[in-house]
Amino acid sequence: xxxxxxxxxxxxxxxxxxxxxxxxxxxxxxxxxxxxxxxxxxxxxxxxxxxxxxxxxxxxxxxxxxxxxxxxxxxxxxxxxxxxxxxxxxxxxxxxxxxxxxxxxxxxxxxxxxxxxxxxxxxxxxxxxxxxxxx
Amino acid sequence: xxxxxxxxxxxxxxxxxxxxxxxxxxxxxxxxxxxxxxxxxxxxxxxxxxxxxxxxxxxxxxxxxxxxxxxxxxxxxxxxxxxxxxxxxxxxxxxxxxxxxxxxxxxxxxxxxxxxxxxxxxxxxxxxxxxxxxx
DNA sequence: TAATAACCTACTAAATCGATAGGTTAATAG
DNA sequence: CTATTAACCTATCGATTTAGTAGGTTATTA
Lengths: 135, 135
Description:
2 copies of one chain form a homodimer. Chain A has 135 residues and is mainly alpha-helical.
């Protein structure tokens, strides 16, 4: 299941990407429009800023703005930052690999074999879609 | 993330499907071979029996056995029983649909649009694979 | 200097997960 | 008929994660 954190993060980024001007958008505006708890959203946008998706400006007229073009922001990147691994099992994760403690040999593991296929197909979809495709 | 429940369930089913004879396999044997807590595995095999994947036999020489041919057991069916929805968001789930409380219109929701694609590609992989493919 | 909005830290209620404990029931072997 | 075996059932539990809330501080603008 996708966490609300990730879901809200994607919605917020989409909201910002939809702005006609490149003006900063306030957290409160996004929160109201997308029905998200403002405090929770604050923490999400902070993560997205710290990981290089957003810039920010304080004080009146401040807010968050996109640093890159929506076409250049792949959904894989967003989801990895907010949700963590895309793979359903750590032992097939490209960016968050971890060995299973129960599995002695990945090569003969039936789950491993299957989850690699799932990972690849998911990766294809999320790699093909950019923020621009969601606007 | 795939739960251990589902992971162990798939491993157990694969183990049973690998048996040369159709003889019942004991929980203890699977647990030992696959490094799974026996008690936990018991509860999983019980679910798989109640949902029609396995038959069981009590007493000495008892255990669990497949009811259908491995070729006829799709991975989608197994995962839906053990893990629940395959979709990452309830609002795009075919078997466990639920409306999002924050989202006023699914048609214009960016997350919805994306998650439908992820669901379909995952469904393709899990629908193409049967238990026989994992053995 | 007041208002604004991002930024930061800490806490928490509720749910879920991965078990464990301690039995009961039914089938088989001797 | 009895002991053993293995499935079956119910309850509980510690740890972790989730989705927030509370209450501030810092920097920018009018």
